[in-house]
Amino acid sequence: MLVSSTRLISLRKLITRIQLTRFNSASALAQLSPATQYPVSEEQAVYTYRKDCASDRFINLNASRVVESFYNLKNDPNLACSFFTPLKETGFQHNIDTYAAFIRVLCRWRFDRKLQSLLSEIVGSKESDLGFDVTALFEVFSVNSSVLIWVLDMLVKEYVSVGMFDVAIDALFQLKRRGFVPRIMSCNFLMNRLIEQGKLDMALAIYRLLKISGFNE
Questions:
Q1: Cα 159 vs. chain centroid, distance in angstroms?
Q2: Is residue 132 a contact partner of residue 138, using CB atoms and an 8 Å limit?
Q3: Which among 41, 169, 181, 188 has most CB atoms closer than 10 A?
Q4: How far apart are CA 178 and CA 14, in angstroms?
């Protein structure tokens, strides 16, 4: 049985660990899902931080360095999670590139609950605070269909949970316009909620989208 451990670690030490971390990918393993090769639990590690360490608040990081750090942490999702939140506490402003880099790590390891929580935070934030529109993520991930479809699946659930049905439907059509096919689970989830709300016309529109586009299992 896995036992969660709690570590007290400063942001300075965390960044030092990240800077020392180097990963060499093997081409034979590149075709396999890392979540299958090396199962990692979202609950495997829990990190807390000293908020009273003033020196941690003045660490000079820019977006490109943060993106590079997430890339280096692609095989250590728990450490990536531990790196993301404390940055905000130092006053660092995440942008679409740093969000996207972190999301790629979460999708790579199928950290669904963390990804759903992150997307909930994004959807609930003002565009002026984020510095980008949520739909801009579609463009960022358009070169990676697996990540794009996974993110859209979570976004649809988030939009539906807050009653943003029009936005959820538009997200599905955004995917279609980029030449990708939505997952059947996403469409079923949305259609069931639309029917429950008496929005039969909208549910029928989704059904027609499936008929003309095909779908992913």
A1: 15
A2: no
A3: 169
A4: 38
> What whole-number distance in Å separates Cα of residue 180 and Cα of residue 159?
20
Closest CA to 190 of 207, 211, 178, 215: 207
Q: How many angstroms separate the CA atoms of 29 and 51, rounded?
A: 39
Cα(148)–Cα(146) distance, rounded to whole angstroms?
6
Instruction: Tell me the pTM.
Output: 0.75
Amino acid at 83: F
User: Which residue matches tokens 């779908």?
Assistant: 215
CA dist., res. 110 & res. 104, Å (int):
10
pLDDT in tens, the chain (217 residues): 443 444 434 555 555 555 555 444 333 333 334 554 444 555 443 333 344 443 344 357 899 999 999 999 999 999 999 999 888 888 889 999 999 999 999 999 999 999 999 999 999 999 999 999 998 998 899 888 889 999 998 999 999 999 999 999 998 888 878 888 778 888 889 999 999 999 999 899 888 877 776 654 4
